[in-house]
Amino acid sequence: MVTRTGARYRPTSVPFRALGPALLCLFAGLAWSPGQAQQVLVERFSPPPGTSRVPAAPGTFAHYLRQLTLKPIGTPVLLYNGRPKSRQDVHVAVLDIPVGTRDLQQCADAVIRLRAEHLHRQGRHKDIRFHFTNGFLAEWDRWRLGERIAVSGNTVRWVAGGDRNDRPENLRAYLDQVFIYAGTRSLHQELRPADGSTVEAGDVFIQGGSPGHAVLVVDVAQDKDGRAFMMLAQSYMPAQDIHVLKGPVAGAWYEFRAGPVLTTPEWTFQWSDHRKW
Fold first, then answer.
1. Are 51 and 225 a contacting pair, CB within 8 Å?
2. Fewer Cβ neighbours under 10 Å: the N or C end of the chain?
3. pLDDT tens profile 83-119
4. Model's pTM, two decimal places?
């Protein structure tokens, strides 16, 4: 059968503690204001003291990620069924991106979605293509031109009969199909290993398998000595709002290659899990 491979809960020993919204904002260097209006990521979060953001040209994935809209400060992470996530102590912000009403947009799916929506905005239709876990290549360029994907057991094929359009809702329908049959295992195989010397916004830390997990680098800052600091975002299981992870540096940042492993609130990665598009 064609199956998806995603993350499952695996606790880590991260010493993060649950904070109320006001204390969390103080810890992360944010201005707390109940009911605060939406902001984009680059407006809400300052880089760690003594650092500056790495330049990101308009049109790049890094620039797109910095402009992601966030829900108001203090917003909880909700599951696809509208219930709050059991752990509300792992995030400092929630992206204003609908999770949907099905248990689909999990960890790898969130990475795939943000990448696809960036490419869609840039009109790079042929670059939106992702493999299912059985190796089938699901191409948005075929989907938008009216083809659809038929799955029967382990047999997957293209069939005619769909609407021909580039609208965002059609992209979401395509992505839902990808979310069902892709996962950390297939995404891990699509991404290329990083050489470990630098990190860029848009990079991914991923462990493929079942269980497996993936987090996306959504921002990068650097100090005068060349030390890099990164901001991470994730979804998880079950499907839930994409959220920016609480970090040990200035509340929302992680120093790149500091320590033997990358420890996040719900997963521990090896530095060799670093991948690029």
1. no
2. N
3. 999 999 999 999 999 999 999 999 999 999 999 999 9
4. 0.88
Query: Residue 263's beta-bridge partner residues?
Result: 268
3-state secondary structure at position 105:
coil
Residue ranges in the chain assigned as alpha helix (H): 21-27, 41-44, 61-66, 107-121, 140-143, 168-181, 184-190
Report CA-CA distances (Å) from 82 to 4, 79, 101: 23, 5, 8
Query: Among 238, 274, 239, which residue's Cα sits nearest to residue 254?
Result: 274
Q: Which residues of 193-222 are buried (b: 16+ CB within 10 A; e: fewer)?
A: ebeeebbbbbbbbbbbeeebbbbbbbbbbb
- Tokens representing 232? 């991470």
DSSP state letters, 126-179: GG-EEE-TTS-EEEHHHHTBT-EEEEETTEEEEES---B---HHHHHHHHHHHH
**Three-class secondary structure of residue 216 per DSSP:** strand
Amino acid at 64: Y
Q: How far apart are CA 41 and CA 26, in angstroms?
A: 17
Residue that has been written with the tokens 């204003």 in this structure: 96
Tens of pLDDT, residues 185-213: 999 999 999 999 999 999 999 999 988 99
**Residues written for the chain:** 277
- Tokens standing for residue 46: 């300052």
Cα–Cα dist 113/33, whole Å: 30
Beta pairing partners, 93: 244
What is the rounded distance in angstroms from the CA atom of residue 219 to the CA atom of residue 201?
5
Judge residue 121's burial from the number of C-beta atoms within 10 Å of its C-beta, 0-12 exposed, 13-18 middle, 19 or more buried. exposed
**6: amino acid identity, one letter:** G
Q: Residue 63, CB half-sphere, CA atoms under 13 Å: how many?
A: 9
Q: Could you give the 3-state DSSP secondary structure of residue 222?
A: strand
Q: Which amino acid is at 99?
A: V
